[in-house]
Design a protein that fits this description.
Elements: H1 8-56, H2 64-74
Amino acid sequence: MKKIYLSLNTKMFLFTMMPFVQVIIIISILSIQNRIKNERELTSNRIESYVTLLESGDLSFNSIKQKGEIEKLLNEKVLSAKL
């Protein structure tokens, strides 16, 4: 089997670029995690506000279709319009 030898310039280029690539990968991972965390918080806040509105009676639904939409949104079973 024939060995592949890299030139000195190629080796220098690879070794100098590796830290930059690693930093870019780490920054990308952190930004993705931050975005996921923010989306979870926003969804949680939205669900809490809907539950609060339902409990206070400010939000009610007039049809079965609206009840189904709220159940789908909250991913829970809605028992009554007025809690």
